[in-house]
Amino acid sequence: MTLAFTVPGLDEAASEKAVAILQNRLSQEQEAALVLKHAHWNVTGPNFIAVHEMLDPQVEVVLAQADETAERIATLGGTLDGRPEAIVRNRTWKDFDLAGRQSTTDYINALIEYYDAFIADDRKAIAELDELDLVSSNIVQDHVQELEKFQWFLRSHVA
């Protein structure tokens, strides 16, 4: 990877590693927005409208997180990849495998599991970024806080 520049206080090697970690996070954030919208469109049954309407704000926040991650990559001098094939190429997490019209409970449980992996991957990225770039680490920390809140919302529906 070739950086266009480095930010003051970070060397090229640290910047390249941070960019690679952030690119992985960007790909998962982009996919998460698609997964959440998929669930939004396909939930059925009891509590349909509550779950349907709860998911759209999550989509918006996760897309905003992706935008913030992409902008951080650019700020670090990296070139980001927001194309669909980058999501597949960068995937280090399990596919979301629930498809079609399913009950709200099925989608909620599947999304809770998806958030488990998403949050764990973000926490791993935080630990790695703590050693490289605290600013990037803080960005991902803020993202985790929102994701954990959304997961709490979902868990509260099936508690």
UniProtKB/TrEMBL annotation:
Residue span, Ferritin/DPS domain: 20-158
Pfam families: Ferritin
GO molecular function: ferric iron binding; oxidoreductase activity, acting on metal ions
Database matches in InterPro entries: DPS_DNA-bd, DPS_DNA-bd_CS, Ferritin-like, Ferritin-like_SF, Ferritin_DPS_dom
Record family assignment: Belongs to the Dps family.
Matching PANTHER family: DNA PROTECTION DURING STARVATION PROTEIN, GENERAL STRESS PROTEIN 20U
UniProt name for this protein: DNA starvation/stationary phase protection protein
Species of origin: Bifidobacterium avesanii
